[in-house]
Design a protein that fits this description.
Blueprint: E1 2-3, E2 12-13, H1 16-23, H2 31-37, H3 49-56, E3 63-68, H4 74-79, E4 84-90, H5 93-103, E5 112-116, E6 128-134, H6 145-155, E7 156-166, H7 186-193, E8 198-205, E9 218-224
Length: about 230
């Protein structure tokens, strides 16, 4: 595990067992407590470099975008502009409060919003053109992954795109690379997304991964089949 220092955007080591203990504590644990204690190894303290790069070169879909598990919201703010309205969603009050505090005076504040809600029970009023998932799929319990895929299907427009930055990859499961509690593989995503109509546009190594995550991330871009209808 890792934790961002005040002067660096590269995560530094945090005892993995401490993070796991707090996250899974039956009495006073969970994601809220992790945020309260600053046990947030997934938080880079800045926008995700590959997402920012794709935004700057015009490679991201326009329209309505969603970032579930947005945390402090750096990615939300980074890709919001007059052509893309971004919703940052998180289950943690602490995370949302921090995100709002950090971004409230930003010049593009009218192009994004933050919501405290459970992704799985939340019902947005409008569909999305684009969803970005980074350390969200790998944070949920594995038995909830099929629900994750179904929700992605339901909230995306017929021609919508899901982008998954996959970390930590399973081939590095014995290394201390930080990130949410569950290792992942490309097969894990394919297993959930293929049966409900998603097809991979591309799956590539993330050349812009930071610090200890270099060589341990893959970027997947998925499109819904036109026959894949939303239930909203």
């Amino acid at each position: 595990m890792s934790k961002k220092t005040e002067h660096s955007s590269v995560p530094v080591p945090v005892p993995k067992n401490r993070f796991q203990q707090v996250l899974h504590s039956p009495t006073n644990g969970g994601w809220e407590e992790c945020w309260q204690q600053g046990l947030t190894p997934w938080d880079l303290g800045r926008p995700t470099p590959t997402l920012l790069h794709l935004h700057q070169n015009g490679s991201l879909p326009k329209g309505r975008a969603l970032i579930p598990g947005c945390g402090t919201g750096y990615d939300v703010v980074a890709i919001a502009d007059p052509q893309r309205y971004v919703v940052g969603l998180d289950i943690s009050d602490n995370a949302i409060h921090k995100a709002i505090k950090l971004s409230s005076s930003h010049p593009n504040a009218s192009y994004f919003t933050f919501l405290k809600a459970d992704f799985f029970t939340w019902h947005p009023t409008d569909l999305f053109d684009f969803v970005f998932d980074y350390t969200f799929f790998s944070a949920i319990e594995p038995e909830m992954r099929s629900q994750w895929a179904q929700k992605m299907r339901d909230i995306l427009k017929p021609d919508g795109e899901l982008m998954t930055l996959m970390f930590p990859m399973s081939e590095h499961k014995h290394e201390n690379v930080g990130g949410p509690p569950y290792i992942v593989s490309v097969t894990d995503y394919e297993k959930e997304l293929h049966p409900i109509g998603f097809k991979a546009i591309s799956i590539t190594d993330n050349e812009l991964a930071v610090g200890p995550r270099k060589g341990r991330e893959k970027l997947g871009r998925w499109k819904k089949s036109l026959l894949c209808n939303s239930s909203l």
